Amino acid sequence: CTVTAQRWHLGPHVRRADATVPEEIAFMFADARAAAIPAGIHVRQRAPVAPSPARGLTELAEREQADLIVVGSSRRGEAGRIRLERTAGRLLQGAPCAVAIAPGGLRETGDFRHVGIAFDGSPEARAGLDSGYRIAARCGAAVTLLWALPGADTEPLRREARLHAEEALDAAAESAPAAVNPRTLLLHGAPGDVIRDACDGVVDLLVTGSRGYGPMHRALLGSVSEALTEGASHPVLVMPRRPALTVESSATSETRSLP
Q: How far apart are CA 7 and CA 120, in angstroms?
C-alpha cells in the first residue's frame, strides 16, 4: 500500500522563487511523517504545481493510478462533522478513483464496526453495495442498507414505490457474502437528508455510489451524495461508476464463469 502526500502551489500569483512556499510544504510533510504510520505502508512525497488543489490531486491520482483519494473536511467546519470545501467538491465532480471524505478531528484508526450503504437499486448504487460488502467482510462489521423514498403524489404510487424498494432491498441483502448479515432500513423523505440523519451516531462509514451520469470510472458528486456528505459525523466513501457491460463482454464473462 502506498500513501501519497500532495501539496499544490497557491496559483499563478505565487512566485516560485518565494521561499515561504517550499518551507510550508516541508513543514506539512514533516507533520504527516510524525503521525503514526502503520507497518507495511510506504509513504511517498509529491508536490506538483497545479492551478488548483482539485486539479493537482486529480492529475496526481491519474499518474499514480490511485485506487482512492482521501481528503479531510474544511477547517471552518464543525469539529466531528464533514464540511465540504471546494477541493473535495471539485474532486467529486470527476475524480479518477474512489474518494473518501473524513470529518474534522477524526482520530479513530481501528477497523470499521458498522458500515452503512446508501442503496436505491441503480447500477451506480450497486458499485457502492459491492464495495461496502467487501469492506464489512474484511472488518467483520455490521451492515445496514438504507433506501429513502421521496414523497409520491398518490397512495397507489407510494404503495408501488414501497413494494419495489422492499423487493430490491431484500435482493440486495440476499446478495451479501457469507460473512455479512445486513439489515435493511426503508426511510421516507429527501434521500440525502434522511439517510445521513439515520446514520448519525450509528455507522462509522457510509458508502455510496456516484450519480447516474458523467464519464465511467469516475466518482461524481450529485445532489444526493452531497447531502449525504455535508454535515456527516462519519467518513463517507464515494465509489466511481463502472462501465456498462456490452452484450459481447457480458456473454464472455458468463462463459468464463461456467465450470
A: 37
